[in-house]
């Protein structure tokens, strides 16, 4: 698993999302995801939305994913 594949999965699963993913060891990753659909949602709900795009890879090929989730307005602030 590589960071670019994870980015593509997140951006495909959350239409309009913009993701930046980093991870050097192939199992631990950090991602910043900016998506308008996060508006009005608590952080836990936002994280669940991102995890849903990765499906069974979470806890399998992706051992850990540290997330920062923002709306476009939050990202611009």
TrEMBL record:
Any Gene Ontology CC annotation: cytosol
Stored Pfam families: BolA
Gene3D superfamilies: BolA-like
InterPro entries: BolA, BolA-like_sf, BolA/IbaG_stress_morph_reg
GO-annotated biological processes: DNA-templated transcription
Domain of life per record: Bacteria
Family: Belongs to the BolA/IbaG family.
Protein known as: BolA/IbaG family iron-sulfur metabolism protein
Species the sequence originates in: Thermomonas aquatica
């Amino acid at each position: 698993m590589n960071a670019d594949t994870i980015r593509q999965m997140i951006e495909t699963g959350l239409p309009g999302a913009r993701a930046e993913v980093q991870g050097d060891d192939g199992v631990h990753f950090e991602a910043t995801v900016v998506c308008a659909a996060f508006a009005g949602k608590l952080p836990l709900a936002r994280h669940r939305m991102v995890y849903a795009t990765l499906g069974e890879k979470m806890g399998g090929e992706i051992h850990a994913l540290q997330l920062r989730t923002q709306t476009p307005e939050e990202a611009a602030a």
